[in-house]
Amino acid sequence: MSYLQDQEELIERWKREQLTLKEKLVTIDKVKWKLKLDDDDNDDNDERLTLIGGVDISFPKGDDVHACACLVIISYPGLEVVYEDFAMVHLTSPYVPEFLAFREVEFLVESIKRLQQRKPDMMPQVIMVDGNGILHPRGFGIASHLGVITDIPTIGVAKNLFHVDGIEKGEEHTKQISCLLQDKGNSFPLVGKSGTTWGMALRSSKKSTTTPVCKPIYVSVGHKVSLDTAVKLVDACCRYRIPEPTRQVRK
């Protein structure tokens, strides 16, 4: 069997696994958190949010096989690092666009398992993933994949726009950024040709600018979190363009 045939069979198997896992995906808030302690909208039954995780896989320059799997836990609302886990890993699965989870997610799961063993009291209530959630051709990116496997609420936070359902980084998108993202916290929905809202473009910092318009981040539902909550929480965690949970894993 040729390499091309092997690759095609692998991709088809991954597609089936994605669709099977997607059946367990939850895109609404399973827990209502107090995002602002002084918010009048808080209900007495709302859960206080205290610990947020951030995960990423970082590669040394010029090396696409060896990497560092990173997990950071920060306090909320203080946004201070309270736990770190960094492990060098060797990736054996090929990089295939749309299937990043099958290359990286096992190492992120291992980081979470180590946390459970070492510091179970530090388990995060939600995890921000440097990547996409449902902003994905099959509605199941790495943030959703990680959330379903671990059964922990997750949010996808991407630095670049994933072209899905006719959404692309063109003239119209640039115009939306220029008109709708004037101040920190401003956002607009990423609506595809199908009418589906895949995520939100968010201006996360007053300084997140590049000529001639600001440079947003792209927030999408991962698992067990609604889009509205995801955007509010990401914005609340931003001192700079990248929210602290995923910014700290890359430092």
Automatic annotation (TrEMBL):
InterPro entries: Endonuclease-V
Coiled-coil annotated spans: none
Gene Ontology BP, a term: DNA repair
Pfam annotation, one family: Endonuclease_5
One Gene Ontology term of the molecular function aspect: DNA binding
Subcellular location: Cytoplasm, Stress granule; Nucleus, Nucleolus
Subunit structure: Monomer. Interacts with PABPC1; the interaction is RNA-dependent and stimulates ENDOV activity.
Family: Belongs to the endonuclease V family.
Purpose: Endoribonuclease that specifically cleaves inosine-containing RNAs: cleaves RNA at the second phosphodiester bond 3' to inosine. Active against both single-stranded and double-stranded RNAs. Has strong preference for single-stranded RNAs (ssRNAs) toward double-stranded RNAs (dsRNAs). Cleaves mRNAs and tRNAs containing inosine. Also able to cleave structure-specific dsRNA substrates containing the specific sites 5'-IIUI-3' and 5'-UIUU-3'.
Protein name: Endonuclease V
